[in-house]
Design brief:
Layout: H1 2-32, H2 39-46, H3 50-53, H4 60-83, H5 89-106, H6 108-121, H7 129-151, H8 160-172, H9 186-199
Helix pairs in contact: 1-2, 1-4, 1-6, 4-5, 5-6, 5-7, 5-9, 7-8
Length: about 220
């Protein structure tokens, strides 16, 4: 009976330890790059022998695959919910941006890896799903922007492809400076970002203080 209990405890701890190791590997991949990272470097960062790491994963490629697929599966779970909600174009953009910052908060290192490595990884059969995800991502954002122009929610002269690239790059580059648990929540960062993108950063005419001349008697 004690042997069975101990075995159950080990089995219960295994998924948690696996997640810890993947988090460590993600940080090392993000900081040093995939090609420069060895199994030994990951093991050193995790405080274990390199041979012990093979008890959980058969290669660093397997670790990278699980890191990226987990991130993308969660991202698309959130995106699909937004896209199926029947929101207007502007509300959809707002929700997609907010969901993006939430994913950066949850998977900052994975996002950094994706940005740095995906261009090279897509050539490997194991990572072909990255290409599918990129195409799906492009369709979702471009479709929403085009719908917004057609509905009059966005300017008629908007270059939707240029806008898509701008929004995509400026959102996801946040992974390079964002740190979970910082001063601002992902929702607050999304709100500030959307305010700048959708409303601009210049003070609108109606928000300027009244600069009408004073009555001469006021300065007498």
């Amino acid at each position: 009976m004690p042997t069975t209990k101990k075995k159950n405890q080990v089995n219960a701890a295994a998924p948690e330890r696996r997640r810890e190791l993947l988090d460590t590997a993600a940080e090392v991949f993000a900081a040093q790059g995939y090609n420069a990272t060895t199994v030994r470097k990951i093991a050193d960062a995790a405080g274990m022998l390199a041979g012990s790491l093979y008890y959980h994963f058969d290669s660093k490629e397997s670790m990278l695959d699980e890191i990226l697929s987990t991130f993308l599966n969660e991202l698309w779970e959130g995106y699909d919910t937004v896209l199926a909600a029947g929101l207007g174009p502007r509300e959809t953009i707002e929700a997609l941006v907010t969901e993006s910052f939430r994913e950066i908060d949850r998977h900052r290192a994975a996002v950094a890896i994706y940005q740095k490595e995906s261009r090279h990884l897509v050539d490997q059969p194991r990572f072909h799903y990255l290409t599918d995800s990129q195409r799906k991502f492009r369709r979702a954002w471009l479709g929403t922007l085009e719908r917004g122009v057609a509905a009059g929610a966005f300017r008629a002269d908007l270059d939707v492809r240029l806008t898509y690239r701008f929004v995509r790059d400026t959102v996801w580059v946040a992974a390079s400076w964002y740190r979970p648990g910082g001063r601002h929540s992902p929702e607050e960062i999304a709100r500030q970002y959307l305010s700048m993108v959708l409303d601009g950063i210049a003070v609108r005419a109606q928000d300027l203080p009244d600069r009408s001349p004073h009555d001469p008697e006021d300065t007498a």
